[in-house]
Amino acid sequence: MGATSTVTGNDRELSTTRRSVVGLRGSWLLLAVLSTTAGAVDVIGFLALGGLFTAHITGNLVVAAAHYITGGPGRVGPLLALPVFVAVLGAVTVASVAIERAGYASGRGLMVLHAGLLTGSLGFGVAFGPFADTDRPMALLVSMLAVAAMATQNALVKLVLPGAPSTAVMTTNITQLIVDLCAFARWSGEPDNLARARRRQARLTFPCVVGFVAGCAAGAALEVHLGLWALVLPALLAVLAVALGERRDDLGVGT
To answer: By three-state DSSP, how is residue 68 classified?
Structure first.
């Protein structure tokens, strides 16, 4: 009885993993584009908006705690980023669930919102920047539009691409990638379905890591030469993601 129960549990885990991977097959390019977007936005925000991490909320918590403990001058952006991120993430999730329950796909709307927020950040940044004081209201608006876009992107990946790697948190992705690579080496001679599923999952994780690094490099180079005009890159990538999403009807991105 115990052995049967164990086998059943393993079969259920294998079935869930296989369904997740099959549903994500072919999504590597979309995930890579979103990861590149996050890397670019994060580094541009850090360089042009007073050390703000738009996609890496943990970084803002560290900055805020460091300023608070040391008594140094703190910036408003990192303090405001967390509540804005949480509020937008919650609102987008509730809206997405409601749309899905009404019988409509929410993926396209999330992607359009994501692109719109980044375009708005670009527009206000170019029109009113650069900002000598990043605590000014307009600078904060540009910053929080970018943070809202990243919150929307995180919700999008969780809700529309369940089981996909993160497109913004590379610590988790790199850890999972190394664990999977070590597992592949151990299972290299075994025709195990779960091992193959994890191998395909690594094929999704690797483009995310590479895309994020490429986005950071490109965003930094553009910001140094173009200032806030560098936000053109993530805005264009977000529009490209909308186009790629239109081809992912099986994931609920299209109508």
So the answer is: helix
Residues 6+ apart with CB under 8 A from 86: 151
Tell me, rounded to whole angstroms, the distance of Cα 3 from its chain centroid.
40
Query: CB neighbours (10 Å) of residue 39?
Result: 31
d(CA 204, CA 177): 9
Indicate the pLDDT class of residue 143, thresholds 50, 70 and 90: very high
- Cβ density class 83-103: b for 16+ within 10 Å, e for less: ebbeebbeebbeebeeeeeee
Model confidence at 117, in pLDDT bands (50, 70, 90)?
A: very high
Mean per-residue pLDDT, 92-108: 89
Domains of the chain: 23-251 (1.20.1250)
pLDDT at residue 23 in the model: 45
> Which contacts (CB < 8 Å, 24+ apart) does range 14-21 have?
14/193, 14/194, 14/197, 17/194, 17/197, 17/198, 18/193, 18/197, 20/162, 20/163, 21/163, 21/197, 21/200, 21/201
Residue pair 38/167 in contact (Cβ under 8 Å)? The answer is yes
> Across all residues in the chain, what is the average pLDDT?
82
Is the pTM higher than 0.85? The answer reads: no
Contact 77, 143 (CB under 8 A): yes
